[in-house]
Specification:
2 copies of one chain form a homodimer. With 347 residues, chain A is α/β, with parallel strands linked by helices. Chain A is built from 11 helices and 17 strands. Chain A has 2 domains: 131 residues, Four Helix Bundle (Hemerythrin (Met), subunit A), CATH 1.20.120.420; 208 residues, Translation initiation factor eif-2b, domain 2 (Rossmann fold). A 7-stranded mixed β-sheet of chain A has the order 6-5-4-7-10-16-17. Chain A has a 4-stranded mixed β-sheet with strand order 11-8-9-15, with helices on one face. Chain A has a 3-stranded antiparallel β-sheet with strand order 1-2-3, with helices on one face. In chain A, strand 5, helix 7 and strand 6 form a beta-alpha-beta unit. In chain A, helix 2 packs antiparallel against helix 3, helix 3 runs antiparallel to helix 4 and helix 4 packs across helix 5. At the A-B interface, helix 7, strand 6, helix 8, helix 9 and strand 13 of A face helix 7, strand 6, helix 8, helix 9 and strand 13 of B. Strand 14 of chain A pairs parallel with strand 6 of chain B, so a sheet runs across the interface.
Chain lengths: 347, 347
């Protein structure tokens, strides 16, 4: 199992994803500010993974809280929550994890701080463990939706590194490999941050799953030639109507999948569903620094003074999604009803 | 006018496009081998530009030919032609320019070598001059096909640097700017060689045309938001049925244009038309080194041992092309008939 993030007894340890695949170095976060910085600067990324990081960040913050007064602790919690929630706006798992930690706090607010913190830690570790379980379940479910000799294209990294472990889109890939249904994997390099080239290749090569790296603009060519027969991606937020926010480039792939009559699967745990957001237009899309577009690996590639844009996510309308696979089952068109039904099932 | 390529009296001088935008350095080719290397290694690229380079390369080779015997000279010519034609397989302008130089040779084979070479040079310079004229004409024609407040996306570099001057797709952009029809230009960075980020931005910034750099995978997002209302690209070879080979990524853009009801224009001089190739499947697609995908600007981005693919071009089927603009007019569906008609017109 890849060590994406772990609680080591006192601190939160995470692999520094900015330095992969060249270096396997670990960050040790001692307080919530360091966790917030790690999320903001993308040392850790991937919607489920940053949800786990936020939950652990809350534990770090709350254990520095000396007062036993309920009001003080609630105020401290909200200050920590605000800082963590502000790091990245698109993935809903961040606010989902914070909301879950808040419910835990409210349940145990009668306890003294010394007893409350272990409860919060238990909850954070439950979020971590449940995320791995969810990935395994949705991976096995999703693998059965692939063509029998699947030649899967995936975008960005929706793998073990984007979750507490196993991965969402790459969970489906791993399960398909185990079930003997996987013929090939194509990984988009995923500019500008190159999560595909750096992280997806690194993960899948470690697992011995044969993967071919392509640039983002090659996907259509390989679909037209029949070398790709399914697309599987993760998600950062799924609106109530089934619109999916995910890494920039996902929407274009969904259009290409339709043109080539290829299934377009979205893999995400229920923590990524956001019933409070009606449609994709209501999802905030993070605009990151244009420096990440004009420069690659620290080197300037565009002329001095070049203007660039950098939306980090896009929205794929529900009509282009063949199915959404979560730990409780598979949602299909009409996605709004199907998702609502899955969310209602008692887990 | 940008100095893409020039005959300086004795040698062929070209700007080294591999080093732009960081450095403006010039290569001086003294013989056909140096010209062939410059084309193969992409110091000069762009279908019309490499056609001009090949014509000038033939002059360099033929002026080293001492014999006045017709058979010797024809044999020398064919050896030079083979070397130049083998450099890059997809762009037809290379073999078009060679064929035109061969006709010139055959016309003047009665002359002694000392008189033949000036005829060949005259022809090479005519190819260069006519290419600039063709770009200006097709630029003006194409500009009128754009929406009135055009927000144009272009891919790769089909500019002055890809031609003898002015450009094909960027010729349309330049003419639209002059006619006051241009509101914005988006340039795909165009991985792996980054012609968009490096060359298109450099060219258009020099001309004061406001251009926004995006990664290839952002195009769909900006189309969906209405920020792009036309796509204009160049071509490396146009088959008799109107299928278009162009830089990898072009085909995907054509699919996206259809989905968003945006015009998809192809700009190319008649030297890019290949009536001898029936359809796109008959066009050879160059596979370049996977090293260009696993590395960026000399730095490894993918893990050691990563497998990558690198088709340098793709084929856009005629049904996705709104119009092909050449120096003699505009070809529209059914493209096969329309192209044949334009090719028949005496220039």
């Amino acid at each position: 199992m890849l060590p994406t993030i772990a609680w080591d007894g006192e601190t939160v340890v995470m692999i520094d994803q900015r330095r992969l695949p060249q270096e396997e170095t670990y960050l040790r976060c001692r307080d919530q500010h360091e966790v917030a910085a790690a999320i903001r600067d993308m040392a850790i990324r991937g919607a489920p993974a940053i949800g786990v990081a936020a939950a652990m960040g809350i534990v770090l913050g709350m254990q520095r809280q000396a007062s036993d007064a309920a009001g003080d602790r609630a105020a401290t919690f909200e200050a920590i929550a605000r800082e963590l929630a502000a790091t990245r706006p698109t993935a809903v798992n961040l606010s989902w994890a914070i909301a879950r930690m808040r419910r835990c706090l409210e349940t145990h607010l009668a306890l003294r701080t010394a007893s409350l913190v272990p409860e919060l830690l238990r909850e954070a570790l439950a979020i971590e463990r449940e995320d791995i379980d969810a990935c395994r379940r949705l991976g096995d479910l999703g693998a059965l939706l692939l063509p029998e000799r699947a030649r899967v294209l995936t975008h960005c990294n929706a793998g073990a590194l984007a979750t507490a472990g196993y991965g969402t889109a790459l969970g489906i890939v791993r399960s398909a490999a185990r079930l003997g249904r996987l013929e090939a994997v194509f990984a988009d390099e995923t500019r500008p941050f190159l999560q595909g080239a750096r992280l997806t290749l690194w993960e899948l090569m470690r697992d011995g799953i044969p993967t071919t790296l392509i640039t983002d603009n090659m996907a259509a060519h390989f679909m037209a030639r029949g070398e790709i027969n399914a697309i599987v991606v993760g998600a950062d937020r799924i609106a109530a109507n089934g619109d999916v926010a995910n890494k920039i480039g996902t929407y274009g792939l969904a259009v290409l999948a339709k043109e080539h009559c290829i299934p377009f699967l979205v893999a995400a745990p229920l923590s990524t569903f956001d019933p409070a957001t009606p449609t994709g237009v209501d999802i905030p899309i993070e605009e990151r620094s244009p420096h990440e577009v004009t420069h690659i690996a620290g080197q300037r590639v565009a002329p001095e003074g070049a203007v660039a844009r950098h939306p980090a996510f896009d929205v794929t309308p529900a009509r282009l999604v063949s199915a959404i696979v979560c730990e409780r089952g598979v949602a299909r068109a009409p996605l709004a009803d199907s998702l609502a039904q899955l969310a209602r099932i008692v887990g």
